[in-house]
Amino acid sequence: MKLIDDIVSQAAYLRTVRRDIHAHPELAFEETRTSDLVAGLLTQWGIPIHRGLGKTGVVGILKHGSSTRAIGLRADMDALPMQESNQFEHASQHPGKMHACGHDGHTTMLLGAAQYLAQHRDFDGTVYLIFQPAEEHGGGAREMMRDGLFELFPMDAVFGMHNMPGIPVGTIAASPGPVLASNNEFRITVRGKGGHAAMPQLSVDPIAVASQILPALQTIITRSKKPLETAVVSVTMIHAGDVPNVIPDTCEIQGSVRAYTAETLDLIERRMREITEHAGAMFGAACDFEFRRNYPSTVNHEAETAVARQVLSEMLPASQVITQTPIMAAEDFSFMLEAVPGCYAFIGNGEGDHRDPGHGAGPCVVHNTSYDFNDDLLPLGASFFVRLVQRWLEKA
């Protein structure tokens, strides 16, 4: 493994920074302390900053040489509204908030790269260091873009990275094409006619109508879309009634839809609407259907992914540069990749044996109360970011 010595020598410092961020988690658009810490370190290292995009976002601007080429590196900063079960020293100090997805590590890896690049400036062009809020809830990438991210800081390519539990430490995956699905939500409200449970003939039971809708939704996956196109329709919430002997007026169904292509998503939305409306008509109820598209699919660009894999092949043994099997989770870096070509990579976080004594009883997977980022990744992730910059902005 060929890491950058000067970054490796900063491993203990980077661990301290990461654990400080972990101990002080902040939710979407509330990352005031975290953005202050980021802005302070960038300023200390002589990197000009721009603040306020997406409310709490920070962009560092690092220029050197005469080239007009520019590259963006992105890390997310927000935490999740979860109660941490870990009891080690750097566990969350804020009840109900936790860095359960590793954004503390992503931010620190980019800070490690920023420190090195500021000190050595061994590139020709511009590096934009994008510290983004609200990846988990709120679409912080989209909000930074709405506030002018790519107009203020035009770049030729943008790169991001996420830790991946279950992949061995020292391994990084980078693959062209779709790597993460779109994130979409739906709400179906069945409006019937309430009444006494002993006299159902005088009512229009919305629960009975909903019970017909639920299995029909799954026929979209098995009978409407092409078998080789992956998608998921998950009903995750059903609410109806208050007491056992009353048929309620309404029943509400909510859930999530995941897909890789816009065409498949269009099909699913259309068929869900048709099923809902016709089910209501068939049983004499009225049905309202709402569909919200949150994050698009994360699709890596061919050329930029090839560059990332070439950089990795020069840093790591071939067995540690792998392809990422697409998964149905979502990521708002997808908005950036729709606007600017780039690549989103996955760095192995291991199986969890890195956790200090005092960790919770659960597995070390993201969005779990026992999760903790693996600090051994920090020099690797920071070195990868730096090597991307050096390759993309090679001196003529």
From TrEMBL:
Coiled-coil features, chain-numbered ranges: none
InterPro entries tied to this protein: Amidohydrolase, Bact_exopeptidase_dim_dom, Peptidase_M20, Peptidase_M20_dimer
Pfam families to which the protein is assigned, alphabetical: M20_dimer, Peptidase_M20
Alphabetical list of CDD domains matching this protein: M20_Acy1-like
UniProt superkingdom: Bacteria
Keyword set includes Hydrolase: yes
Leader sequence residues: none
Keywords: Hydrolase
NCBIfam families: amidohydrolases
Name of the molecule in the record: Amidohydrolase
Organism annotation: Ottowia thiooxydans
